[in-house]
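Lecture 7 notes: from sequence to structure.
We start with the chain below.
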Amino acid sequence: MPQPPVFLAGRAELQQDLILLSGAEGRHAATVRRMRRGERADVADGAGLVAECVVAGHSSAGLELAVQARRAVPRPDPSITVVQAIPKGDRGELAVAEMTEVGVDRIMPWAAARSVAIWRAERGARSLARWRAAAREAAKQSRRAWLPEVTEPVSAPDVAAVITAAACAIVLEPGAAQSLGQLSLPEAGDLVVIVGPEGGITDEESAAFRAAGAALARLGPTVLRTSTAGPVAAAVLLSRSARW
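Predicted structure tokens for the same chain:
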């Protein structure tokens, strides 16, 4: 039986017995999905609250959804953070979408020394907005109760601070002695994966990350693109946790 579609709205709206789905969400539900009276739909606030609804009707303001039940989904634990070196073109958006579908909880765009793409001023703001939009749409498609956080771009010192605060941090390195599947992992806390650019992480970056407490690990016998490595690494970690 197909699962009902998921739409997003604010928490205050989810507390109402009748939710008015307006704007882009309402247009998508009514025009693209062609939702009809009596059909099921879920509405989430992206922070763990989900309202199970049925379509009550259409109005000029949007789609009306009658709430049948509500459920609170606990925040995932362990949480997965991927520090993603900014790739060129639209590969970053693809990586964000795939990481969201897999279950990554926080995505940090990293301006690595060897990143070809550079986010500056308005271009950077537009790129970040596209990453966040990709996460939002992928979260709805994959029926997530929690939207992943896509942070502002970070520098190497920022990444080192994240590593220090993590329960476990791993730098993906094709030449590492251990594979990601062999590492001992904590059962809870923030698991951080650092994905370098196509040209690789510099010796200085690697040394700083290891000094902050990160371990080096390889994904396998092949070298993946930077836009592929994050989703694959997250899947490996999640498959070894109680979340999967």
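Points to note: The two ends are 22 Å apart (CA to CA). Residues 22 and 60 are 9 Å apart (CA to CA).
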